[in-house]
Amino acid sequence: MFKRSVHANNVSLQLIDLDGGPVGANITQMILGMPKADTLPTWTRMDSFDSLDSVKDWVRRSAWGALVINPGLSGRLDNALYNGTAYKPNEALTMVLSSGRHVISSIMFIQPALSGAIARVANQYSLKMVDAFQSQQMGLGGADASKTNVEALLRPIGYTSVDVAPDGFGLAPFVTLFGFLCMALCTLSFLITWKFSSFTFFLKVKFRDLAAMWIALLLSVSVFLSLHFSLAFLAYRGPDYGIEAKKYTAGSFFKIWFTGAAVNMAFATWLFTWFLNLMPKFIALPSLVTVIPNVVSVATTPEFASRFYKIFYCLPFYNGSRIFQTVTTGAYPHSGRYAGILIAEIIAMLICLTISIWLRQLFVLRGISDMHGWYRWNTFFHGMVPYYKDAAATQHKDDESQIEPASTARSPSFDHESIDINDAQSDNVSLQTGNLAC
């Protein structure tokens, strides 16, 4: 993700002092006084815990990591310095991790930040102890220093590391990434085939049946591919997965199966919505808004990014990977939120896909789009269906040709018989000037 290292300060690490003595106070002051940088997580102090177990449980559920100053550190160190009692430096601090929350981010940012803080404290405190011993013999006023435990003097601060949600194997960062990506690429071949071979469906199948058919096909493909994804993880995990890892049960298998199906269903409907109405020359364009952002959201996490990339929280790959990590490691158990986002995205994408199917069928039936998805204004358009406007104009001309205009209409005519006019006969009535004869 772009400049993710300079946004590491968006994440906070907790410092928890269970010692309550002068040593714990000095260590707390050293860590909180370290220079802040954008490339390092921010340190915050928390005092609401009473045991190491409560800290572990809280880190697993809610945090990235914490540094715990173990109880009784001041007393053990004083006894070792003044009375020469046995001292184990590794019992001074406990580094608590939750790598299952996001393995890559934990390796790149969380573990180095915790280890760096511990190394800084250990070096500073060791130098401070040696200087005090040389100048004042540890405040004993010149008393016999042979009672001092040398290991406690030279190495007063050590640590132990606890991963409360381990993945258990070295390739854990790539399981969900390549699993979801393989499902997406397999689905991609089906979607491209359906785009270029579905022309006759739009001509012969009703819209309702067409939408139901494609939704059922996408669901079937998603369930089928996700089953293989879950089986592949089960086979890869094997008997040597790790004794600290969360137990893998039949319930875990089905959770991974249906999580993968939901992820692929959301992704497939999203991608097919683009494919239906795009011309072939833009067939690779949806990868910029589907494949690439989804892959990046799994490879890193939006917490280590600028505000713009918070949009990755709604991507199917990201939410599916969070559920997967919770199922396999128990880290950050907020699966309900991630499942809700996936379901909402599936519903939204189904609505968009239904609208896209309707538009595609409308364009085909009206002759706006051809078999391959080219539109009329494109050079490569080769329509098999007459353009609806041209068809309407032709029909209008045919209707007009059946009725002759009034100016050229033939008026009714009659065939008059010829009438002969003969000269007046004697028996005819005639009218003469001044004389009326019969």
Automatic annotation (TrEMBL):
Cite a GO CC annotation: membrane
Keywords on record: Membrane, Transmembrane, Transmembrane helix
InterPro entries, alphabetically? DUF3533, MNNG_permease-like
Q: Where are the transmembrane segments?
A: 171-192, 212-236, 256-276, 282-299, 338-359
Pfam families xrefs? DUF3533
**Record's signal peptide:** none
Q: Does the keyword Transmembrane apply?
A: yes
Q: Which residues form the DUF3533 domain?
A: 1-347
Q: Which domain of life is it from?
A: Eukaryota
The name of this protein is: DUF3533 domain-containing protein
Recorded source organism is: Linderina pennispora
